[in-house]
Every structure is written in C-alpha cells, then in structure tokens.
C-alpha cells in the first residue's frame, strides 16, 4: 500500500477533472483495501473510493479526506458442465475481463464490451449496455460492511438491482465491494441479441445469437462511433459516459411529453411507468452535439456525454449540465437526474 499526499483527483477520473485530496492510498490487494478503509473509519476520516474513475464527477475543490485507489488484482475460475463461475478482484479492469470471456468461450458479458472502469464497480449501478446488464450474470459479491467492520456476501436478490441501480448505490458510505463472482454459460455464442441497434449492425434479427468475438467487435465499433470507448487522442471520450439517466415517467407525463414534441418520443414500458430517452429529450430541447462553453461541451458524437475539452473545470461542466437539465424541465416537465457519482457537488 503506498500513500502520497494531496494527489489531484483529475489524474484519476476519465473526465480529467477534480481538485486535490488530502491523501491518496493505492491499495493493491483486498487486505490493503480493508485496512485503508477501516483505518480511516477508526479515526473518523472521510473516505472516497476510486477505481477507474469513469463514473465520477469531483468538484474543483476536491475531497477533504483519504482517497483509496482500488487496485486489487486476481481472477479465479471454477466450472461445471455448462457454466463457469468467475471470481474477480474489485480492481480488475472490466474490459480485460470481457475480452477474456469472449476469447475463452464464456457467454454473458459480450455486449458489455468497451465499458471503462473496474469489475468491482459493476454491481454498484448494475452496469449495462446494448440490452445486457450485470444482474443477469451476477452470482454474488463479497463486500466490507463499514458499519460492522465485517465481510458480508450479497446474492443477486439482496442487491436489489434495477436500471443503473442497486442497494450499493444508495449506501455509498457503507459497502466496499471487494470481489464479484459472475456465472457465465460455456458457449461460443452470444446471449440472444435484445437491442435493435446491435441486431441491425449485425444484420440479424433480435433474439438471434452470434459468435462471441463478433458480438464484441460489433459493440466496440458501435461504441467508438459514439465516443464511448476511452481513447486518449479523442476528447469526445473525456467524459463520465452518459451524464443523465433515462427518466421513467407516469403515463400522464408521457402523454404531455408526446404532445409537446415534434416527433413521437422513443419510449419503453417498464415497471413504474414509461422510460424516455434522455438523449432524445436533450435534442428536442434544442441542444446539439458539440454545444458548450468554458472548456466543456456536449460530445461531438453523443448528446448524453458531457466532455472536458482539455481545459474545462467541474464548475463549467456542472453549469452546462444544469443548463441542459433546466431547459429539458422547462420544455417537458421532466427533471433529468445525473448518472455519475457526484463528490463535493450540490446537484
Ligand atoms: C466513455 C464511457 C462510457 C461508459 N459507458 C457505460 C455503459 O455503457 N454502461 C454503464 O453502465 N456505464 C458506463 N459508463 C460508466 C462507468 O464506466 C461505469 O459505471 C463503471 O462501472 C464505473 O467503474 P469505475 O471503476 O470507473 O468506478 P469509479 O468511477 O471509480 O467509481 C464510481 C462509483 O462507484 C464507487 N466504487 C467504485 N468501486 C467501488 C467498490 N469496489 N466498492 C464500492 N464502491 C465503489 C465509487 O466510490 C464511486 O461512487 C461509461 C463511462 C465512460 C467514461
């Protein structure tokens, strides 16, 4: 475990934004993570957990406390006739795991290719893309419960997974994910394609399957076209991914949105109402790709990604985000909520 003083959090977020932290601890295995967090808790020092920093917006003032960089490594695999169970340390790179699963013939992660960040963060917001979510392959996770100081195991139902949501997202100061076990089918083929965009790109019907490597390459190509794969040479990827969650509204609000819009809103019936596309709402509110000011802008490739063009600040990013939120709300009566974790920011 190495400790340095007053690191800059901008060096540890994909937005490349965030002020200083009092101290920075790099925890390279499970025991060191537990020691760093419980040690800080024992003296009442605030803790910020950072893994890939790809879902974080940290204020320019930074974080008063200890930032623990989750850098644990290790993957173990057990198998039975039809499945493998893959147990992954929290700090493992997510996309490296997906690449390995596709190469090994383990089916269930392929549509989650190209998502930045760590394995340990995947249960936090039930990471998902292109019709696949972690919850569908999740077996269990071992977490440090900071209230009791004990290691606890959560199974799927105990995680209360929802759309970009889980029990962990609402108890950020309580649970530290130490490792995650996924259960994957032994198959050279993808899970059935559920997303029309993926099916169209592959020229197959929704519900069909394709070889894992083909699914992965197709998703990577689609994601690159939207700036959704990290690329140091492309400022459109200096983001936290989708900035806003797709809102779920009741039927009356959906009807009002449809009446106020110039085209039929893309929508999906879900538990609790109708899910709308945040990107569509932003476009209908008059925003265009590339729009921005003060060194930050909407991505040139995707309306949902807010990017740092290299010289931006968190203050400027939040000002742009609030401008978008407020104009969408004025026009449609729908208040957008941010997807990333905010640190030191009053949203
Ligand atoms: C270009 C781009 C594309 C993206 N595309 C997608 C996408 O398609 N789908 C999607 O769901 N997300 C997407 N994201 C968001 C992000 O990549 C995921 O949410 C990812 O799982 C975050 O992992 P991380 O390790 O970077 O987490 P961090 O950003 O380091 O942390 C995020 C939050 O989780 C907490 N946390 C992290 N690790 C742990 C742990 N082990 N235990 C407890 N708390 C922890 C942190 O304290 C913080 O609150 C994208 C982001 C970017 C930049």
Automatic annotation (TrEMBL):
Record EC number: 1.3.1.98
Gene Ontology CC, one term: cytosol
Localization annotation: Cytoplasm
FAD-binding PCMH-type domain location: 17-187
One GO-annotated biological process of the protein: cell wall organization
GO MF: FAD binding; UDP-N-acetylmuramate dehydrogenase activity
Keyword Cell cycle: yes
Domain of life assignment: Bacteria
Active site: 164, 242 (proton donor), 339
Pathway given in the UniProt record: Cell wall biogenesis; peptidoglycan biosynthesis
Family the entry assigns: Belongs to the MurB family.
Its job: Cell wall formation.
UniProt-recorded name of the protein: UDP-N-acetylenolpyruvoylglucosamine reductase
Gene: murB
């Amino acid at each position: 475990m190495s400790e340095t003083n007053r690191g800059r959090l901008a060096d540890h977020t994909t937005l490349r934004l965030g002020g200083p932290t009092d101290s920075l601890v790099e925890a390279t295995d499970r025991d060191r993570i537990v020691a760093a967090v419980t040690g800080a808790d024992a003296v009442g020092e605030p803790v910020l957990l950072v893994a890939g920093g790809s879902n974080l917006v940290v204020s320019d003032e930074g974080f008063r406390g200890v930032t623990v960089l989750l850098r644990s490594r290790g993957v173990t695999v057990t198998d039975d006739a039809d499945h493998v169970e893959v147990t992954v340390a929290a700090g493992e790179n997510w996309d490296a795991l997906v690449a390995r699963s596709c190469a090994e013939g383990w089916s269930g992660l392929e549509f989650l290719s190209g998502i930045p960040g760590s394995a340990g963060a995947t249960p936090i917001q039930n990471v998902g893309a292109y019709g696949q979510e972690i919850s569908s392959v999740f077996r269990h996770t071992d977490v440090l419960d900071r209230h009791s100081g004990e290691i606890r195991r959560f199974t799927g139902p105990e995680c209360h997974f929802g759309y970009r949501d889980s029990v962990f997202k609402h108890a950020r100061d309580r649970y530290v994910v130490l490792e995650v076990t996924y259960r994957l089918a032994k198959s050279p083929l993808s899970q059935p394609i559920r997303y029309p965009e993926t099916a169209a790109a592959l020229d197959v019907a929704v519900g069909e399957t394709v070889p894992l490597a083909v699914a992965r390459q197709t998703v990577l190509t689609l994601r690159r076209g939207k700036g959704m794969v990290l690329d140091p040479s492309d400022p459109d990827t200096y983001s936290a991914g989708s900035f806003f969650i797709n809102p779920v509204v009741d039927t009356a609000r959906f009807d009002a949105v449809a009446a106020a819009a110039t085209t039929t809103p893309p929508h999906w019936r879900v538990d609790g109402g109708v899910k709308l596309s945040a990107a569509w709402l932003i476009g209908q509110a008059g925003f265009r790709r590339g729009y921005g000011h003060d060194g930050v802008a909407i991505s040139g490739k995707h309306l949902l990604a807010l990017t740092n063009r290299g010289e931006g600040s968190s203050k400027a990013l939040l000002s742009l985000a609030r401008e978008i939120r407020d104009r969408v709300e004025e026009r449609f009566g729908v208040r957008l909520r941010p997807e990333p974790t905010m640190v030191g920011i009053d949203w």
